[in-house]
Amino acid sequence: MTTSYPLSPELAEFVAVTLSFPATEPDISGMRNAYSRMCRAFTPAHPVGLEVSDFSIADVPVRLYRPAGVVREEPAPCVIYLHGGGWVVGDLDSHDFLTAPLAVDLKAVVIAVDYRLAPEFPFPAAFDDCLAVWRRVKAQAEGLGIDPQRMAIAGDSAGGNLAAAVCLALRDAGEAQPLGQALIYPGLGGASTLASRSECADAPLLSNNDLECYRALYLSRREQEKSPYAMPLMATDFSALAPAFIAVAQFDPLRDDGECYHRALTEAGVASRFYPGLGLVHGCLRAKGQAAEVDALYKALVGALRGFL
């Protein structure tokens, strides 16, 4: 695998460790249990002074992170974070490795969203949950100690898909956009003929077969593939959307999805910054602190979110 995809020794080791948590049961439950075990292996203790609370917003479970020094009496900037996992796996714990340090490094409130998962809850359940949380946080910002005028949205993989979809839905409803959208190796509904699909068909940690499996579980009806809220690249209008930071991974079949979305936004007059992710693989943010190229991606993400906020 690493001969076809020339990874640094550190990232190759990360891939090997990640793959050492196979599913022990051949069903969705087994897939989720294996993913959770893997996530725990890469999740450090919370930074000192970080306040973490779990509750529900709009009947959706969320986890709110408030770093030391960010007090409720002074409304803080906020990032709504949507986790990856192919719309099938992932929860409030799976991306704690990222959402906790983001709150500290941004000096902002971060709210992670535990949206409903497919196949039990196919599209549009996850999208509906994320949109509902965004709207409710805006409406209840004062009670949460958040500045409703300083909010951004971010997500990786399926979460990047959902973040882009939320921006499209808000625009279509005539509502204010987030200050920015940060999409990390997002799956946006790119065509199967994109170069990255063939060049990275069996890439480490995400293959074309994986993509097809997740997509089939998320979309219960074929016509949903045409919905921009399911697959944002299906939109016909990309204007008046939030400024974007779009990061991809070089060795990822989804690489060209992000590049196509960046191009569509730019052509529509939306400010968009593209991060090519040289040497990276899908899901690599979990290797933060282990590989220099991943640390560079994380630094760029923090810089982009700071710029938005």
Description:
The protein has 309 residues and is an alpha/beta fold. It has an 8-stranded mixed sheet with strand order 1-2-4-3-5-6-7-8, with helices on both faces. The chain has one domain: Rossmann fold. The mean pLDDT is 96. It contains 10 helices and 8 strands. α4 crosses α6.
Our count of helices gives 10
Can you tell me the CATH class? Answer: Alpha Beta
Strand content: 15-25%
Q: Over all CA atoms, what is the radius of gyration?
A: 18 Å
Describe the structure concisely for a colleague:
This protein is an alpha/beta fold. It has helices at residues 9-18, 28-41, 96-106, 125-139, 141-144, 158-172, 195-199, 208-218, 255-267, 292-308; strands spanning 51-57, 60-66, 76-82, 109-113, 146-156, 181-184, 244-247, 272-275.
